[in-house]
């Protein structure tokens, strides 16, 4: 009976993860480390991963902020933002109406968030807090460029 229950839980978790995935090609991965200085140095433990995808079939960009290591399956305030902009406005990809974001308390990931990307550049930022609130220590990373 325990084996059956474990199998069902594994299948349920796999189904949930698949439902929250991005389609297309993985174009960028940035690790997030628990660096108290905020510099995201790799010598500190990995607590998350920013993943960015591009789907050439529909022209969409997609991003998600995954928990990792000590934050996996642990409720944490998590934030993901994905912005797109014209190549001539490359520094403006994450402002105002150019971005889509999701934030809240999650155990596995924030996102996915999607934006049309054909003919545009992108910027993505992901953060994980040290607790379930925004006022905890925030560990973050970002990526920009990838003009299509």
Helix and strand arrangement:
Layout: H1 2-19, E1 25-33, E2 46-55, E3 60-67, E4 76-85, E5 99-106, E6 109-116, E7 121-129, E8 138-145
Task: Give a description of the structure.
The protein has one helix spanning 2-19, and strands spanning 25-33, 46-55, 60-67, 76-85, 99-106, 109-116, 121-129, 138-145. The termini are far apart. The chain contains 1 helix and 8 strands. Helix content is 12%, strand content 47%. The chain has one domain: Immunoglobulin-like (Sandwich). A hairpin with an 8-residue loop joins strand 7 (121-129) and strand 8 (138-145). The strands form 2 sheets. The chain has a 4-stranded antiparallel β-sheet with strand order 1-2-3-6, with no helix packed on it. The chain has 148 residues and is mainly beta.
